[in-house]
Specification:
Order of helices and strands: EHHEHEHEEEE
Structural class: alpha+beta
Number of strands: 7
Largest sheet: 4 strands, mixed
Number of helices: 4
Number of domains: 1
Length: 126
Amino acid sequence: MSLKRSISFFIDAVLAARLLKPFSATGTPFRTATVFSAAGNRCPANSASETAGEMGIELLTEDEYRALQTLGQFDSKTSSWIATPSNIRRFGGALFCDRRYDHVFVYHNGASSYYAARGFRGSLRV
């Protein structure tokens, strides 16, 4: 992502929709408890990808998530789903990130995996 070519506003998606605040460093009950894509009966009714689409935003890419982390320390007690390449999604996988030990980590999980402390972060391009 070239910051000179585009301007991105990073949005803590679920929280921003309810409280109109742009960031939450560690997460709140509003931004947690999402799956990447809903499948199965144990999943929450909304998924990160569906909610982002309804809000008109895109999930952050790995590069955008790393750029966000240069602005502060986010997800030190939570994690966030990020946009996942189609070659991973094809097998039912999804990517998520967090910050631990002063380092940004990228992990994988099944797209329907549910964790109470996982939300998502998105971007809005203007």
